[in-house]
């Protein structure tokens, strides 16, 4: 049954979702040193351990994929393969996010990085029954000037694959203040806005993301559970939460699936969605995440349909795509 239901993944990181076989092949092709060229061994370096101490600990495993994601061909291929994998899970629409700045270490320009990922999405759309959009991530540990560079580089692709911007990396207190001008500018030229916030114990960051950065969606948002101000603004403004149960346990946003607030949020009328976050890093896919909804959170088919509709309504897709998603 889970295989057959339509799915939408609104929160999936490209560099956290690379096939290990592809990493090995690209490393050999480009003479890139990695800890092992054997799949069983390299997986130990690509999948975050269940006993991660924090989000910072979780993020360490991204170093290896980034090494092989520094050419146009590699980025296009990896994007295509990600959508190919998702299509086989009956994912009908997926928004993939990545930080263009992290793929310029071997000389690619920002627009070349973005164009390569756009082409990968288009390749998959031509071959499979899936649609996609791209979210450009700006790094919270970088400058606002760097954020402006990413926003400008993606401008020519708005409406042609690119749909939104995001802020990601380790979550710092009051990070929103640093990026107010960039977010305002991005919105003024047509970007949609989603922000990683409230993932690691700083619930007030969610309030700030909505009020200072005009976030329409929040990546994770787990810690609104401990911040009345953030909880209220999310509920009253119908802000959609991009929740990622498996990842949230790994990063210690929650200590176990049983503690995850997804079901409570859903029961209280918060707009929740279910997503993968990082398929390889978290060793997950949409089949596993949906199984958590039914088996651990005890949601019904009707509940799932409402969550699917939450995803359709919150998607940074055009009206034609949304109409198509409602046919399933």
Automatic annotation (TrEMBL):
InterPro entries: A_deaminase (IPR028893), A_deaminase_dom (IPR001365), Ado/ade_deaminase (IPR006330), Metal_Hydrolase (IPR032466). The gene is add. Its EC number is 3.5.4.4. This is Adenosine deaminase. GO terms for molecular function: adenosine deaminase activity; zinc ion binding. Belongs to the metallo-dependent hydrolases superfamily. Adenosine and AMP deaminases family. Adenosine deaminase subfamily. One of its GO terms (cellular component) is cytosol. Its cofactor is Zn(2+). The keyword Metal-binding applies. PANTHER family: ADENOSINE DEAMINASE. Keywords: Hydrolase, Metal-binding, Nucleotide metabolism, Zinc. Binds 1 zinc ion per subunit. The active site is at 199 (proton donor). The lineage of its organism: Bacteria, Bacillati, Bacillota, Clostridia, Eubacteriales. GO terms for biological process: adenosine catabolic process; hypoxanthine salvage; inosine biosynthetic process; nucleotide metabolic process; purine ribonucleoside monophosphate biosynthetic process.
